[in-house]
Amino acid sequence: MLQRDNHSFARSMYLLGQIGAIVCHERGPKADTSILTHMASHPAEGFWLAMSDINGARTPTRGGARALLQWKRKEIARLARMLPHPLPESASAQTQMPFWAGYCQYWDDVLKAHVDTEPGRSARQTGDQQPRHVNA
């Protein structure tokens, strides 16, 4: 039973890392370390802070920024449905590894392709594409 609990905790941390990557993505990783470190060390509180940040973001009236924010909210909701309730209150340094693995993998697999520009294309053109999602 303990092994299953550890797996569940690791999976929760991995999903939180993916959510952290989405929250901090803005045509490149926007390193808001306070949100990320809260999510990694105090998952329940950090998740609440991340949701406050994304829900408090003012929706642009049109364009790629609006599409990106809508996608972020939808993708975060999809990942959040996979999280256990309640979330763990705290995580030790040793148990944070899955969080950072989820953050890095989501960045590499989903978000990075949408900020790397091809020669001759501007970042604005690249930002108009909506990122795909990875099943966690």
How would you describe the overall organization of this protein?
By secondary structure, the chain is an all-alpha fold. The protein has helices at 2-23, 33-41, 43-56, 64-80, 97-111, 123-127. It is globular, with a radius of gyration of 15 Å.
What key attributes describe this structure?
136 residues
Would you kindly provide a brief summary of this structure?
This protein is mostly helical. The chain has six helices and no strands.
Layout of helices and strands:
Elements: H1 2-23, H2 33-41, H3 43-56, H4 64-80, H5 97-111, H6 123-127
Helix pairs in contact: 1-2, 1-3, 1-4, 1-5, 2-3
What overall form do the CA principal axes indicate?
globular
Rounded radius of gyration (Å): 15 Å
Structural class: mainly alpha
Q: Would you report the number of β strands?
A: 0
First and last CA, distance? 22 Å
The total of helices stands at 6
Count of distinct structural domains: 1
Largest sheet geometry: none
Mean pLDDT: 78
Order of helices and strands: HHHHHH
Unreliable spans are: 117-128
Helix content: 55-70%
The proportion of residues in beta strands is: under 5%
